[in-house]
Every structure is written in C-alpha cells, then in structure tokens.
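Exercise 7.
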Amino acid sequence: MTQTSENVTWLTQEAYNQLKAELEYLSGPARSEIVTKIAAAREEGDLRENGGYHAAKEEQGKQELRVRQLTQLLEHAKVGEAPAATGEAAPGMVVTIAFDGDEDDTLTFLLASREYASSEFETYSPQSPLGTGVIGKRVGENAEYELPNGKTAAVKILKAEPFQG
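Solution. The predicted structure, written as tokens, is:
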C-alpha cells in the first residue's frame, strides 16, 4: 500500500471505524452537551465576567476543530488492509533507519498519520520531512531528508515491516 496523494491517509477498517465513531459522538451527543453547558452558563448573567461561559465556548471551539479534522481525514481516507511485507517504507510500516549508515545509531518508528500514534513506537507522518525522505525506499537503500535547520540528513533503511498494532 502506498500513498497516491499527499491528502490520502491509509487506514485499516478498525481505525476508520474508531474515527467514524468519534466523529459521530462529537457531532451528536457531545455537541448537544456543550450547547447545554453554554446555555446554563449564559443564564448566570453578565457574559463578560462569566468564566464558565468562556470555558464552554473554548471547549466548543476545540470540539468543532476536531470535527473538521476528522471530517477531512475521513473524506480522504483509503480503507484497506495493513501493507504487505515488501521491505519498502510505506504508510502502515514500522521502519528502522540508521543515521549516516551507522548501525549503532538507529531509530525505529511507525510511518503513519499521527491519528494512529502507537505507544510502542514513535510515529512519523508520511508528509513529515523524514516520512517523505524514506517513503518508497527499500531495505538497504539510502535516503535523505531536510532537517529544520535546512541541512540534509542521510539515513539507511534497515527494516520495513507491517505494523501489527
């Protein structure tokens, strides 16, 4: 499985279902709860000095942002199985790299959307500098990516295996 567009996020069916359930909750029951909180706080009087009202409005803003993020993510999601063990760095793979070819200086990470961060591995987005540098590379190949300071880092792909999360 490879990424065909910068906006596409590959998801397993389970991950898609979890995000869809979160979106449905935030768009339905959670939205109703926050409207009730705002209405109750509004009843307390002067809105300029009403901490409960301002907190509820801030919570509503964060919730609506999450609804927009989830909606966009799910609109551009491709649902499929975990990638096959091809030895190629792709979304859904756990990748081990060696910095500057030094096999004692390695990093193992999950190449995936941050929505699927794993407690077991650091997660790097396929759109991140490291992600774009390694995506499509096979075990044994070298890759380069740009560091925040503008310099280039060289890495060697040591492993690329499907994530079993």
